[in-house]
Amino acid sequence: MYHLFAVLFFLIRSPAVGADSGHETHLPTHPHQFVAENQQPDTLADFEKFRMRLESEYAEKANKISDHYLKAQRALYGREYQKAHQEIDKALKIHRNADLLALKGSIYFSTGDLVQAKKNWEEALKLDKTLPLPHINGLKEWLHNSGLLP
Question: Rounded to 10 degrees, what is the CA torsion of 124, 129, 131, 135?
């Protein structure tokens, strides 16, 4: 149940999927936005084609992120830490957000690399202080003792 909640929460909290350059991609919802981005459509139909292409690209990236996130989470709970690292790194190459960084921090925590765990959790909590905490023994207490949680 936690897995499903985490994925749904992750997708809801991530309205914009970043391009490979790290910039967020926002879908234009009105022809004026399309024109403002120097992509002047000849017709409203051109705008609709462009919007549909962007929606398709957005959905494809979101699906890839979700897939890698779930694989990393399953690997973490299955104690396959190398695989967990590989999958979360693939997701982070597509988009960098608090949920992905928190999972990466949790993977490091589970392997005993507390320096990298703190670094990733610190970055994640800077992006979003309301992150749900996974059920990993000792994580909440460690985050509190590290000064990352009140």
Answer: 90
Is the pTM of the predicted complex or chain greater than 0.70?
A: no
Classify 2-13+27-145 by CATH class. mainly alpha
Alpha carbon distance 97, 128 (integer Å): 9
Per-domain residue ranges of the chain? 2-13+27-145
pLDDT tens digits along 43-98 = 777 777 777 877 877 788 888 999 999 999 999 999 999 999 999 999 999 999 99
